[in-house]
Specification:
Elements: H1 7-24, E1 35-43, E2 46-54, E3 81-85, E4 89-91, E5 94-96, E6 99-106, E7 112-117, E8 133-139, E9 142-159, E10 162-180, H2 182-193, H3 202-215, H4 219-232, H5 236-250, H6 255-272, H7 277-289, H8 293-306, H9 310-322, H10 326-339, H11 342-354, H12 358-371, H13 376-389, H14 392-404, H15 409-421
Antiparallel strand pairs: 1-2, 2-3, 3-6, 4-5, 4-10, 6-7, 7-8, 9-10
Helix pairs in contact: 3-4, 3-5, 4-5, 5-6, 5-7, 6-7, 7-8, 7-9, 8-9, 9-10, 11-12, 12-13, 13-14, 13-15, 14-15
Length: 431
């Protein structure tokens, strides 16, 4: 080959080559054949996102041809398929720290290898290096449900602590299970939030303690959270919660000891904090559940003395019934019903109705119609009770009465629905 001696000629030749390379590359943004896609799933508070490109089958033979077996594959098209985790996870039971990873796979006849690479900027798998692996797991491929023309990632078998990410293309499905330590992530988030403005809100401390109690975790720290909430603003929920957590922390795993500590804690808080009848009534119900009848009776009577309403008196009646004093209980109950507000009577009636005590519920609804005859809702409730009791004629009368009182839309809809169930057509009276 003849050498180019003239420097000017050499420079011109180099510029010519650069211009050819420049024009060979796309300058404008145009649609890609294998288009970009995203899919995400939240597990607890952990965000999982897969970014990938979706090649089409387009009549081609995929497995073993377009995608070679036993070779590194980009698990998509174009640049790296990327999977991101906002917190630490386990993939097929193996730990993987939070972060973004290049996703690759090695297809096999019986097993596939799923690879999470620390390199997320590669063009597909062409620049893949095994030493950059963060994790490898082996999974079993499955036959896909239906044929997938375009490569797809989706999440299946979603649970509170995990989900299965599935690659599906043509006739194959390749699943890998991802699990997050939900409680650890939630607790970390709560601790962080409680350092900010939420620390001045007693509800925030209560919610944090409630999460721990409901999931039976982190009892000691949760007791501190419940204590702070109760000190800031005692209410029925945080007082009982604090008592329960105190029992778990100091009860040494012995139920009887835990109950005694819980009751002692609750009693001390009732005596020292600015509590209302609501807290005493909730405490009475808690004591009743623990079969601590002495405290249940004393606290229910204290609640009645502070506010003699239907709620406190019905709680007191329940304690008296359990203690084997039915006559006293019935007398208190009668007085409670006489004092009951519209809403209290209606709610109590539905409690009876849903517990299968239909006749007792009807009686409460009937009392409510006598006390508040101009309220369409009480007639609708009475009609519903009669429907469940199979007393069609009485139900029709009550429901038509409700509709005649110009009820709210939701009450009207319920009355019309119940009449339709009875096979009764209703025509509104002409004005």
């Amino acid at each position: 080959m003849k050498k180019i001696q003239n420097p000017t000629t050499l420079l011109s030749f180099v510029l010519f080559l650069i211009s050819i390379c420049t024009y060979a590359q796309p300058v404008l943004t145009t649609p890609q054949v294998s288009q970009n896609a995203y899919v995400g799933q939240t597990v607890g508070l952990t965000e999982i996102v897969v970014k990938y490109h979706r090649p089409a089958v387009n009549g081609r033979e995929i497995w073993g041809k377009l995608v070679p077996m036993n070779a590194i594959w980009r698990a998509g098209a174009n640049e790296n398929t990327i999977i991101k985790f906002s917190s630490d996870v386990r993939v097929e039971g193996k730990n993987l720290p939070a972060g973004a990873y290049g996703l690759h796979m090695i297809p096999g006849q019986a097993k596939w290898t799923v690879i999470f690479s620390n390199n997320t900027s590669a063009w597909g798998s062409f620049g893949y290096k095994e030493e950059e692996d963060a994790l490898r797991v082996e999974v079993m491929p499955e036959k896909a449900e239906g044929f997938h023309e375009h490569l797809t990632y989706e999440f299946q078998d979603i649970a509170q602590n995990g989900a299965t990410c599935v690659l599906q293309w043509a006739d194959k499905a390749v699943p890998f299970r991802i699990e997050a330590n939900v409680h650890e992530v939630v607790l970390a988030s709560m601790r962080d939030e409680l350092k900010g403005i939420s620390q001045y809100n007693p509800q925030a401390w209560q919610e944090a303690a409630s999460y721990c109690l409901n999931n039976d975790i982190n009892h000691e720290e949760a007791l501190g959270w419940a204590s702070r909430s109760a000190f800031m603003a005692p209410n029925p929920q945080n007082l009982v919660m604090k008592a329960q957590l105190a029992g778990k922390v100091k009860g040494n795993g012995e139920p009887e000891t835990a109950t005694k500590i819980a009751m002692k804690t609750l009693g001390a808080d009732l005596a020292s904090l600015p509590c209302t009848w609501k807290e005493y009534s909730a405490a009475a119900n808690f004591a009743l559940q623990q079969k601590e009848y002495g405290e249940a009776l004393a606290w229910s009577e204290k609640a009645v003395a502070m506010a003699p309403n239907m709620t406190t008196m019905m709680a007191n009646a329940r304690v008296l019934e359990v203690k084997g004093e039915p006559q006293k209980a019935e007398k208190v109950k009668e007085e409670a019903i006489a004092r009951g507000t519209n809403a209290e009577l209606n709610n109590y009636g539905y409690q009876l109705l849903f517990s299968g005590k239909t006749e007792q519920a009807i009686e409460i609804f009937r009392v409510n119609t006598e006390k508040y005859p101009e309220d369409p809702n009480v007639w609708d409730s009475l009609g519903e009770g009669y429907v469940l009791a199979g007393q069609k004629e009485k139900a029709v009368v009550a429901l038509k009465k409700s509709l005649s009182l110009n009820p709210a839309d939701n009450v009207r809809a319920n009355s019309l629905k119940l009449l339709a169930q009875l096979g009764v057509e209703y025509e509104a009276p002409k004005p």
